[in-house]
């Protein structure tokens, strides 16, 4: 039976030896000077950049389940702040998508899956007693546009984010059509 990592390493060895990396050479600084936070959905891997005329080296891309900023001082927010201050990003785009799996997450059912995969009930109880409300932590969203607006607001009002355009969009994962739900330039003009 072939193992995934073995296949990846075999391909990578050939990729490097044949110098197939050369078309992707760029710097760590985004040429188009913006950062995108989007969902980790597999349909967006190539569709999102193609629909926005983005190529390797153009932007900083951050991916998470649902493209959501759920806390002001977590890893997603830290990545956005690093992109702004250290990597030259001058605008932020938060891009969700229709038919997102985070809209259908059932936290109770996921807890059952934890147990089925060998996580002990006692572990879940310890987490709950430690202050992690697992079902709230795992809960997705009911409306992708409201979720995007919420993340945009959190970024825009973060004490460490300068006054720059923060935009919210939703992409159709079939066609690539972008709908603007919060245009950051208008907010700056207020």
Automatic annotation (TrEMBL):
GO MF annotations, alphabetized: carbonate dehydratase activity; zinc ion binding
Binding site for Zn(2+): 39, 41, 97, 100
Listed CDD domains: beta_CA_cladeD
Pfam families per UniProt: Pro_CA
Note on how the cofactor is bound: Binds 1 zinc ion per subunit.
Reaction catalysis annotation: hydrogencarbonate + H(+) = CO2 + H2O
Keyword field contains Coiled coil: no
Top-rank taxon, per record: Bacteria
Enzyme Commission identifier(s): 4.2.1.1
InterPro entries attached to this UniProt entry: Carbonic_anhydrase, Carbonic_anhydrase_sf
Cofactor(s) needed by this chain: Zn(2+)
Keywords: Metal-binding, Zinc
Recorded family membership: Belongs to the beta-class carbonic anhydrase family.
Name of protein: carbonic anhydrase
Native source organism of the sequence: Paenibacillus flagellatus
